[in-house]
Model the fold of this input.
Amino acid sequence: MTLSNSDDLALRERLLGMTTATATNMLNLRGYQNQFMTGARPIQTGGRACGRALTVRFGPARPDMTFPQDERHLEPLWVAIESIVPGDFLVLDCGGDVQAGTTGDILAARIKRRGGVGIVVDGALRDAAQIRDLVHLPCWSAGVHGSGFIAALVCLDWGLTVRCFGVTVRSGDYILADDDGLVAIPAALADEVATDGGETELKETFIRGLVEQGVPLSECYPPTADVLRQFHEWQAAHGH
Amino acid sequence: MTLSNSDDLALRERLLGMTTATATNMLNLRGYQNQFMTGARPIQTGGRACGRALTVRFGPARPDMTFPQDERHLEPLWVAIESIVPGDFLVLDCGGDVQAGTTGDILAARIKRRGGVGIVVDGALRDAAQIRDLVHLPCWSAGVHGSGFIAALVCLDWGLTVRCFGVTVRSGDYILADDDGLVAIPAALADEVATDGGETELKETFIRGLVEQGVPLSECYPPTADVLRQFHEWQAAHGH
Amino acid sequence: MTLSNSDDLALRERLLGMTTATATNMLNLRGYQNQFMTGARPIQTGGRACGRALTVRFGPARPDMTFPQDERHLEPLWVAIESIVPGDFLVLDCGGDVQAGTTGDILAARIKRRGGVGIVVDGALRDAAQIRDLVHLPCWSAGVHGSGFIAALVCLDWGLTVRCFGVTVRSGDYILADDDGLVAIPAALADEVATDGGETELKETFIRGLVEQGVPLSECYPPTADVLRQFHEWQAAHGH
Amino acid sequence: MTLSNSDDLALRERLLGMTTATATNMLNLRGYQNQFMTGARPIQTGGRACGRALTVRFGPARPDMTFPQDERHLEPLWVAIESIVPGDFLVLDCGGDVQAGTTGDILAARIKRRGGVGIVVDGALRDAAQIRDLVHLPCWSAGVHGSGFIAALVCLDWGLTVRCFGVTVRSGDYILADDDGLVAIPAALADEVATDGGETELKETFIRGLVEQGVPLSECYPPTADVLRQFHEWQAAHGH
Amino acid sequence: MTLSNSDDLALRERLLGMTTATATNMLNLRGYQNQFMTGARPIQTGGRACGRALTVRFGPARPDMTFPQDERHLEPLWVAIESIVPGDFLVLDCGGDVQAGTTGDILAARIKRRGGVGIVVDGALRDAAQIRDLVHLPCWSAGVHGSGFIAALVCLDWGLTVRCFGVTVRSGDYILADDDGLVAIPAALADEVATDGGETELKETFIRGLVEQGVPLSECYPPTADVLRQFHEWQAAHGH
Amino acid sequence: MTLSNSDDLALRERLLGMTTATATNMLNLRGYQNQFMTGARPIQTGGRACGRALTVRFGPARPDMTFPQDERHLEPLWVAIESIVPGDFLVLDCGGDVQAGTTGDILAARIKRRGGVGIVVDGALRDAAQIRDLVHLPCWSAGVHGSGFIAALVCLDWGLTVRCFGVTVRSGDYILADDDGLVAIPAALADEVATDGGETELKETFIRGLVEQGVPLSECYPPTADVLRQFHEWQAAHGH
Done:
């Protein structure tokens, strides 16, 4: 299922209209209990991004892989970055190893230049302050480290299914990210998550309004039939 | 020992006059070595709160408890929230499990509407950014997760003695919270902590002033008899 | 190798001209793979500091050491602080124990008054918010705790080689710290790190500029001979 | 649902006929994904036990609970132990805290004398070697510690629903334990787990026999209709 | 570099003549600092095995991968097992997740029947006691769990480079395992590790003999020229 | 306080007459709450040892310390081992780092030859199986690793106060170790611990006998005055 560029852009915009919590809830309701990345922390405040997962895998360094004898060897991370098309979201799988930074400000700048919209790494970034303040590419990670990745890691491959913060991520999943964290949305479900999630966001805003006016939980959350009726009237009246 | 509403409010105000570090120190001096919650992180900057602990306990989900057959079953978390009286501080015990968010923006809004002053959870919150930016209820947690708690947890009960970030908390303990973390003050000690802690805050401010003027530690910290005399003169002169 | 005060100040200023990532990279290139402190978190944003390591060691409390019978006993932490000369950076080794705060606002104020430039502790600070907002001394730690250290720790000694966030630190190492973390630079290497690191910073800024203009990684990072030539021309033209 | 003593004994005997892995599988098939205690380690080799959960909860010590002023206070752990009836399995919830031993050889001897069949604690035991070698009561724990629990813990209560090694355990659940670990079987499901699990054990033994004779997985595991037919013939022929 | 069956068998036999510590040391001397699997625990005592790595990767379960719609889908773990040739050593990469058992007694029996010599999993086994006592296949793991893997994991693929207990393992590496743990020996180095390691084992046995006779470390470890001369004489005399 | 050799030997023999749990209890009663090493695991079953702590400290490797330029440099671990006198117990402080083995079979053989009675390391051993089966020196550790320590650690110094498994250990403390773990007994308390602990062991054996005969806890544990009288009669009758 490949979308045209404009359809993909529209879909990502719709997903950006909801929080990661709402998108996670939509997936939970469809039997996907394990799509939120537990423990990823943003390096910026207020960052939001949505893109298609472009996956890269790292492992602990070993000399025969870090310094391969084949002269035609291309560093997979470089190849992956040069393969980015606008709307891609880099998902780096380090197995939780934070002993070296996978991506610094120069790679981040290139990722942004090619249209990448964000990075998540279950390991460390390098130059996190500069990525945040100079490159302005939203990133989520398990930590920061001063070493380049070659000091402790080797890039294994890219494009494969990976693990990241306890989630199995396939290339092409939609990654939605905000201050709370990240959720991997299987591509086949992205459209219905966008539709139902948008409706849910509205409904929860409506209910929060009721709560702020003093309505007790038993009368509005989960919403009663009466509250749902009120919501649909309000929705119709406001043209949502 | 139950205080009248106004006495309780006054006591909480006095406790808010000191840092969690000072309150912890007052408890240490009385033989309570383990009242500071180690590892709780605020979701906001500059938040401060003091309230009486209202405890809730969660456990890993199991179908017979998540979906009980008894139709009269009331979700304990809902009951606990509707039991809040002004000045309560929710203390949620998840056993450190951050695989699902216990409280989102709607529950937080209801907690605030009923007069709750804060939440601490040794697990995850949901919608943390919205609780911080829209609901404005100060919260401390071990993490953030996009799933509602039903995805991985079940609410066991409320009002019992619980564990939270390494502290045994009884319902009715005073919880004092600031950027540094949280401390549970046994109700029977709250008044004397408020009194002695206030004095200690003043004294430490006075000593820090001396230090900033260049007095070496050996002459002022811990305070010598001479420094204490100077402090009491200063205190008298300034009407504290 | 002891520098004169002015040489030391000049060296620290030059080191402050680079990020911890660049300094770490310079050390990696010289065979030092393990000089970046993994996991230290700043209590402030935008803090930067460079100083010579003054080390202090803590251990779990035991009565015969916490309350020694020898009246001439001096608390090693107090002695260490009173030994600070301008440009020292306190490195506190707690073995990762965050059950008590090692340094509060009064000690931090004294450290600053004596010319200390920063603190790193692989344990907890106390009064972190006040150190940040009132004392303005940049600090990095593993956490915050309300108890003074006497509640759970004993200060063992100072001036010895210590471990801190996975790095062996010798008294006299240069500690460079920024938002990304901290790196320990052996004194014998500090001058060449300062020189080569400064050059590297410039080069990376130049390359990031190329990347932002759209040059692919294969043509500029790592830099080709042509890029290096362009860089040296640019460097000459701009008087760096 | 309370069984007569003889029915309960018969049920526990039937459950002892299967491994914890088989019982866990039976529960997984019924939608209970989280009943196996992850990380519990036996202190003996070859120990097996099955009993009804008798729960006890501990928390970090605090003086007002460790030394209550009420003279009529009874230590909950002592009360719980004296409440044991034959076939009970003690489930101690320490929140993972291994800083003190909950149960030593004397308490273990009393537990055994009253008919207790085993102990699991997500904290530490004391005198583990003596419990194993002198008392001969099978135990599973997260560690061993030399201190009695009063040094770091307080017993909160007993008989409530608890958490233990990531499982929510209700008093009355059947606990089945072997070298691999422990599983909590809700009482309402115990009979059908016993029945189906017994059948599954036989089937898996039969299939393992086929595998050992060289039958490839695709022809026998999961079993084909043909293998199931062979199994039922074998079962009939051998009177199971 | 593919060896004939008999050459491979001979090589594995020679590697079995040394401890994992000696093989690790041989690799350290060649610049491979990170080939020993940190934290793997044997389920048996006295087990030893050497084989060629056959890798399998698992990730957290997600419905679209656990229950794929393509009817031609083959479970990768089953395919991997049926691809075993004598002398293979299964290396299962679970990213440290011990929430479900990857391999039980039936799969272990099939692995053994096809000539597999051992299993290492940086996650959990199922039926560990039966694998040890009935199947007699040596295994190393991070834990044991009662659930089959489908409860929490999905098998992603096999034959790729994986991570296992902090080591990057390529299919075809030689895995040497004993009570102390496991080491991954790159195939290109296996022959020289076998040769030099055998010599080192002899030398260390000789030196340990000297030590037991009372020779101080300064005279024999590391061996002096004189000790090496004695060793070679002893070696010649004993026909090693 | 230095004992003559025979007094020291007699004291160690008396301490060996009690479990680590009893010795820990004796220290708890004297205000030492934190002398038991939490998490140390024996490499053998049934090992027991008591000796005076000889401490050694390790840190993460760095080239200027691993390969010092001073030719007169002596490896501190070698010096420490050659300083052993009979009855010493090696206490190695690695800060919990298990990335390399500190001591292998040859060093262990030398330690034993010089009269060392045991090793505890809050890091890894090397050749653990050989130390257990060939050298027969009882050891406790946090793990096993195949690399020699030079691969990841540097020996810093010996004879200083260290941390080990959460305990501050001074050179000269008595270390008592058994299957349950290890306890550090300050030298000044060793004699009274030996005396009171021996009495406590007898008393607990007596009480366990009562419990096994069916006496309820309320009548014997903690012992009533009547039980204590019975115990003293029994003690007198049996000549203890």
